[in-house]
Write a structure and sequence with these properties.
481 residues; alpha+beta; 4-stranded antiparallel beta sheet; 4-stranded mixed beta sheet
Amino acid sequence: MKWITDTQGSNWITRKALLSLAISVVVVFSLAGSVSAHTPLLYIEDNQDGTIYAEAGFSTGASAAGMPCRLVDEDDNILWEGEFGEDSTLIIQKPDVDPYFVVFDGGPGHVVTKPGPPLTAEEREALGIEEKTEEPAEPAAVRGIQEVVEELVEHANDLIEAGTALRDNTGEIADDESLDDSLRAKAEEIRAVSRELGNIAEVIREHVDELEGLVSDPEANKAKIKETLDEVVDRLEECYAILEAKCDLVHAVLAITPESHTEHADAMHDVYHGAERLVEQLTEHAQELAGLVGVAIPGSAIKPVAVPEQYILMYDLLVLSAEEVAIKAHGHLCVCGATAFRATQVAISQLWGEEIPAKGALELTYHHPGRGHKDVFEYLLGPENVTYVKAGDPKHLTLEDHFTYTFVRTDTGATWETMMKDGVIPEGFFDLRYEVKGFLKGWHQERPTEAKKAAFKQQFDEAVYNILSMEASQIFEGVTP
């Protein structure tokens, strides 16, 4: 056991005792109401041998075993990552960076960052680390260029695969003569588009392959790089226009495909939205590469919709973001998926407080007919813990009938019932939903105007933003501090 002394050198205490003392002090203040009840703590000591000692815990006495620890530089670039051991401690090699910081990540709202002691001249000499010298800017820029080109290659290949998957899954519907002719015709139209999308993706990859060779000497090939990037952006604009034009058709096929073929319709839907994200990412990479090389290329209207970040800390210390869950479970982020995520997030805080629920410990009954609700709830809680009970008219949604939820903590029987409040979803959204999506689903025959479709899209985005940005008490009834 290594020991440390106080500044007078008279009282000897172990490192563990020092952190325990810190916990005791925090608990005292916590009882007085001045510190939250689950405060994360981090103790750092310089071992003076090129390593540091790190120990973490919580003011409640809870262990930090298995929780993430990382070293970052002043720009938040990760220098090292690991996990605290069974005794909540780590010995970490000092990085050859100054300044750097030690981060204990105890989950959302429970992150502690402390500066790390730098390598001394004596430690550098003992470890055989030479003094750092400034590197020319150009090699560093070339390394950045290579990384961006690699991402362009990866996403171009992914876009080709997306076109193939879209073609194959719509083909399973279009070629089945047992299905309704109208459905098959719609699927065939999407299959034709998928071929066009695949052909454009192949051209994009050819240009990207060309860029791989050109960036070996970016200064000499600057003019050719600009020309090639211009072509890439033009082709991406074509892809985006195709995807945007067929959005309604994709959702129409999804809505009317019978259960026997839902697997292919679901895959078509998810691949379609995946292709949208790939086009957005490729556009961002093209603009980034242009900046690194020092050329100007036309701006693009292809920009992803920014959404506020929300997280859930689930069993096994799994930290999940709303957008990540929605994409994995449902293919994209929508009003239903955002609502299901926030409802689950708030239910956990209401039923567990600062604790983390065990897997399978939360059950839910809900009434919204949308697939986004079902997919996200089942992804987070498990299908066996999610029950849908039909209520009201699924064609005409209301908060009272369809945005009500009952969560049950199975180990204690505690229940949290809630309903979404007025003002979260824009007024008139449900009427526009019926007019726009109802036409696609065959509920009525009156084709919506372009103005109504644009208004629906605007209110859709506004609803998602509200759900992910508002405080829990602004969104749901029955939220207690």
